Amino acid sequence: MSEMAMPDWICGEPKIAYQRCGGCGAVQYFRREFCAACGSEDLTTLVASGDGVVCAATLVHRAATAEARAHVPFKIVLVDCAEGFRMMAHGAADLAIGDRVHAGFTQFTGQLVPFFEKADR
User: Fold this and answer.
1) What is the pTM of this model?
2) What gap in Å lies between CA 8 and CA 76, rounded to an integer?
């Protein structure tokens, strides 16, 4: 299996995959065939811990699609993940900037998506 083919939430597996460059050490999310920082193809795909800190949050009241209307209102968060990358995902309604969070997974419009909640720590 190629590094790019490692299944994660995009493929229906409850994991968040990211890459670390063997050339410059940069981390990146979403996965690519090359390092966005230096262009190297020496990438290792890893599974994230799911830990992070909320750096932005918004409550969505208008759904972009008819399927998503059943979920409004819902929270979207930007999370600075422990591994050094930032990702956008769904989050619990009570999340605020600065909250320590941990990722789980939920169904949204028929797809498995990461869902962050306050960490127990």
Assistant:
1) 0.88
2) 20
Q: Give me the pLDDT at residue 4, please.
A: 54
**Which tokens belong to 71?**
């979920």
Please, what's the b/e burial string for 57-84 (b: 16 or more CB within 10 A of its CB; e: otherwise)? beeeeeeeeeeeeeeeebbebbbebebe
Determine how many CB atoms are found less than 10 A away from the CB of residue 86.
13
CA 4, 7, 10, 14 torsion: positive or negative?
negative
- Say which residues have a Cβ less than 8 Å from residue 97's Cβ, sequence separation at least 6: 54, 55, 56, 57
Task: Take residue 1 and report the two structure tokens written for it.
Answer: 């299996």
Whose tokens are 């605020």? That residue is 96
Rounded Cα gap, residues 30 and 45, in angstroms: 11
Burial of 17 (0-12, 13-18, 19+ CB in 10 A): buried
101 or 64, which is more confident: 101
